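Subject line: Sequence and fold of a protein, written as structure tokens
Enclosed: The protein record, placed directly beneath this head.
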Amino acid sequence: MNKYPFVNKTLKKLLLPALILTAGIAKGQEFGGNPPSLKWKQVNTPPARIIFPAGMDSAGIRVANIVQQMNGLIKPTIGLKQRQVNIVLQNQTTVANGYVGLAPFRSEFFLTPEQNSFDIGSLPWPQQLAIHEFRHVQQYNNFNVGLSRALRILFGEGGQALGNDLSVPNWFFEGDAVFNETHVSEQGRGRLPYFFNGYRALWAADRNYSYMKLRNGSYLDFTPDHYPLGYMLVAYGRQQYGDDFWKKVTHDAAAFKGGFYPFQRAIKKYTGTDFNTFKNEGLDHFKDQFSGTDANVKATPKTAGHFDADREYPEYINDSTLIYMKSTYDHIPAFVIKSGNHERRISTRSSSLDNYFNYHDGKVIYAAYRPDLRWSYRNYSELMLLDVNTGKEHGITRKTKYFSPAFSADGKSIVVVQVASSGASQLHILNLEGKVIKMLPNPLKLFYTYPQFYGDDKLVAAVRNHEGKMTLALIDIASGSTQYLIPFSYRPIGFTKVKNQDIYFSQAEDVNDRLFVLKQADNRFYELLPTGNDAGIGHYEPAISDNKMAWVGFTAFGYQITEADKKELKWIDGGEQYPHGLPDMKISALARDSSANMLADVVNKPLPVTPYSKAHGLFNFHSIIPNISDPNYSFAITGENVLNTFQSQLAFDYNTNERYKQFSFDAIYGSLFPYISAGADYTLDRRQFYRGSYVYWNETSVHGGLQVPLSFSAGKHLTGLTFGSDIYFNSTSFQQRNALKIADRSYTYLNNYISFSNQTQAAKQNIYPQLAQSISLNYKSSITGVGSTQFLASGTFYFPGLVTNHSLVINVAHQEKGKNNVISFSNNFPFSKGYTAENLDDMNKIGVNYHFPFAYPDAGFGNLVYLLRLRGALFFDYTHATADNFFTNGGSFKQNFRSTGAAVFFDTKFFNQNSISFGIRYSRLLDNDFFGGTGRNRIELVLPVTIF
């Protein structure tokens, strides 16, 4: 029987009888993701236990001090309940992220910062994560009330996650956390112009989307994510109705006071106005802050259509030719050359964390993402060199953490930011083969972003200091000495570019991100403004040729490039006339109460650091999870330790193919190179069709095994290979009516398996990748007691369809049992659709499926269900099956099972945040359904499945 139903599944769904509702459970987890050589330490405080790799003591202590000293100050605005959380600091990854989740209740900080300081800010990354993510901890602690608490009592932490998901919108969770980061610091996203660009672009284009569309997104149109919406409504609510407003609203909502629509009811209760009015007033407040500032933005009529493309990081090949990155909803990102109005695609981009690249004399250099072979928390950022003339690329570094590469003026060297697992940032200079020529010292512990060569002997970069303030720095390559070119401030700086010893860059100024040039020769500082209409909100990613300049701005139809002749630009002195600060958007609540800007006053007190045992809390049962994965319907008590190296579950499972009931315990340890698993099962009412009737028996089974999951993903392909073997000991007891025919027996068998998957990247609108393969082999063979075997081979192959976003999917399968099998192994053969399946001796299948989208409604009902896309599928399945000793007289069985039909799939969101896809399938049976059912027409509900 196929084990490990919970390996690499992080309990992302709670399944109810009628609906499948994704809950806010532990986003971003990676099972067994760190090598065993990593040693862990901890700082234990009442609000949080900070767990971190050895050598990260300073980061652990800093996070612990921030959390402990912030906790009491910000409690009153969300609630006073407190339960200690475990926060794990992950330093092996290149991904900048963090989360707090239930089931289990814990948090993880991924410690490598972004290069783009406009996006999340420039505060030291562990501090930024602490002031944002710990607010989520307080939310979960105080949303355990009323019906949410009842669900927790019934289903554990997963039950509370479901209750909170149904009652409190995700925009509040994130908006409240963004408000907190803005409130307790001098920066925070609530003060960053970049954070509001999406809504500003919609307002400038007069795109008045409905609340449901803003909440749920679209496959056709750009919609901002829920973070800025959440911040604007949370900030407005605190501004107008007091600092305890959201504590009252969310307490009532999480408790489901008032029944249906508890969140909207609570807002009406505490504001005296309905939710729609409150939402409009909140958005209008922020819209007013930008009134008039986008006057030069080119008006885009509503007839312009849907999202066009993101065109980013332009570079001039000559005055009339640009190269840039182009990303659309139906094609993966690609390098494009534009001459006049003609775009020519050069090559798709390898998997990357951002779209940044640098160009010089026919070559492109950029950083590509690659996961580790085995350890899923460890990944790399490696340099790729692309030849524009041939479209061919190759990697020049391996197992590096390099970011924002840039060529020297002669194109023979590359400067790059290296970020070590310790968090230290350093500038490396490489040759074109990727060999390190020079590593510059960084005694001031700056964090470097977007470095550029400045002449032959210097570098210029936007840098952050230990406070999170930014400036431009000029670094001497020979000595490493650093000169600061402008005063430090909390205004983000980035996208540096050098031309003729002038330094171009973007910097936040009041409610806009603007373009500036620093003429180093005479130390003059200017803002650059176009004289005509601009193509977007904000000015980013400048490119400069001899006579022209280009930059990127955001629009409702994607990032767009504006070009202008240099002589047509306004050069405005960037001196004292500018406010040199970040706006509060007229939210005076940011300055209220004792927690305002408390980050500046955090004292880095010495705290005891002790070892953290990997064996701590292994059996951490946290949730009772119903699950539907046809043909298995299960109910599991699930556990997982904080480091996510040990998963365990007690489960009841009902299999609709064989109609058996199974009670089981399974556990798997993932901290060694192979996973180690063990478990025990007791199964009632297993059955097999034998000589004209069913034979029933019960089974007791114990098992253990090894599994090796590997990732070969690199470049443009995502590739995985998993193989393993389990040994099972089974004791079979035939039920009374069969006991006279067949004797009870015990036996031992091996379950050997290998699975392989490979796919290209997929764009947003692609139903499936353009090219992909998924192949699995499974061989079960008894080794003692009886002689029985079963082999299953299956494969699914994905190809482009006739039109973009269409997919041709072919699946094949072969299953064969030994002719003299005494026992029957469980049946996972993908039988022809519509038929009642049985486990026969020899089965072969081929299926042809054609998938296509046919409508994008972007419409919903009552904030309950939102329909993003309708897609169809046509199919033909052919299965040929044979069996010996099938009939009472020992005769053999041979039959075809062919079906054809169509399905309609609905890509939806429920409750404005939970993505669910399901379908209705009609099957026309071309042969008799020998094992059940009458008639040739079948209609089935197709529940969510996992493809890879």
